[in-house]
Amino acid sequence: MDKIIVEGGRRLEGEVRISGAKNAALPIMAATLLARGAYTLRNVPSLVDVRTMGEMLRVLGAGVEHHDHSITIDTTGCEAREAPYELVKQMRASICVLGPILARHGVARVSLPGGCAWGPRPVDFHIRAMETLGAKVTLEHGYIVAECERLKGATIHFDTPSVGATENAMMAASLAEGTTTIENAAREPEIGALAGFLRSMGARITGDGTDRIVIDGVDELFAADVEIIPDRIEAGTFMVAAAITGGDVLITGMRTDHCSAVIGKLKETGAEITEEGGGLRVKGPVWARSVNVTTAPYPGFPTDMQAQFMALMSVADSTAVITDTIYADRFAHVPELKRLGARIRVDRNVGVVNGVKRLSGARVMATDLRASAALILAGLVAEGETHVSRVYHIDRGYEKIEKKLAELGARIRRERE
Ligand code: EPU
């Protein structure tokens, strides 16, 4: 396994280009199961999770070829109906094949994902959505087994907005008979990206981007090509990298309108953020102001930026209260940030961060994707070397992060452990 070694103290300067969004690419790859044919996906990030989804499609019978930043998928021979445990356990997002397989074949067997690093993360909304559309769902030997004649349009109401369940419901409803309304739908940009792709396949979807999505089912969908939207979480992570090092970084290839909450919070810390030629210039404050943050569904502050923001608050000027309302226990980064000298206490889903003047490099261990990113960010300003081990997690969601940071002037390298 690899580790990343960061030597702190370098101000980041220069330009960085944002890759395609992992969380947009994964459901769009799953959506190709809805129609036979050949697809080309462009601006696809080169990530472990994308390769895992590619493997899933292959197991289901698709031809999948990864090129530099595009993927071609041929679903002509896709007859398999089972998403096996070996793949689903590697990546929860595999659950998004449930809707497409069920809608296309009338039967789907998808392994239950199991727990994750920060809690149970249930899939009950996904299951209930399929039931609401008329499927009979049972749990057998660790698998969700869903069956139907043809799915029937209905009103699906989510207790809280769920990105994955909204995506599964949209995909399944696209081939259902009649009209489906999703109430309290998630509004993340990745939902809009998937809806746009489904529309180009012939689906009839309106209301994406609002909490009420309406889908008029069609009898058949057709293969289409798509360009994946930029990754707003990678963009946010580089914004924090600029801010935490007091740097001056131009971030290109991003959608600033997808990052409003993070931009707003970073401005409150004292960062200077301006639009420049389609990109975003972020100039870090010399010493960040402490700012409270509460995560919320889009357009609120993303839970996927909570750990990175906490790294910034670790070296801010007073006390910041960070509340995660999406996940009850997404604080795996806290004990590791404390090893670098951060002063944080956690009570349930609330972290209270007392900023310190400086962090000191140490050996730390990444336990999930965004925690790894937070540790690398903290390492950028810690005195001496920070060794972040198990960076396997970072490769799931950040394309060449150490290369991009090095190009901005960070002293960072990857070594085999
Ligand atoms: N929830 C349920 N039951 C369900 C589904 C969700 O109770 O059946 C709850 C969750 O426990 C959570 C809330 O609903 O409290 C929202 O979860 P959501 O379903 O929106 O999460 P997800 O679709 O599983 C996606 C991203 C995550 C991101 C969350 C929240 C993908 C592939 N993953 O997950 O991204 O944290 O939305 O924004 O899109 C990451 O990229 O690091 C990552 C974890």
Topology:
Elements: E1 2-7, E2 13-17, H1 22-31, E3 38-42, H2 48-59, E4 63-66, E5 70-74, E6 82-83, H3 85-88, H4 98-105, E7 107-111, H5 124-132, E8 136-140, E9 143-147, E10 155-157, H6 163-174, E11 179-183, H7 189-200, E12 204-206, E13 212-216, E14 226-227, H8 232-244, E15 248-252, H9 260-268, E16 272-276, E17 279-283, E18 293-295, H10 306-314, E19 319-324, H11 333-339, E20 343-347, E21 350-354, E22 359-360, E23 363-365, H12 369-381, E24 382-383, E25 385-389, H13 392-397, H14 401-407, E26 411-416
Parallel strand pairs: 2-15, 3-14, 6-7, 10-11, 18-19, 22-24, 23-25
Antiparallel strand pairs: 1-25, 1-26, 3-5, 4-5, 7-9, 8-9, 11-13, 12-13, 15-17, 16-17, 19-21, 20-21
Bound molecules: uridine-diphosphate-2(N-acetylglucosaminyl) butyric acid.
Low-pLDDT residue intervals, each spanning 5 or more residues: none
Give the number of helices: 14
Strand content: 25-35%
Q: Reading side by side through the largest sheet, how are the strands ordered?
A: 23-25-1-26
**Helical residue percent band:** 25-40%
| Structural class computed from helices and strand pairing | alpha/beta
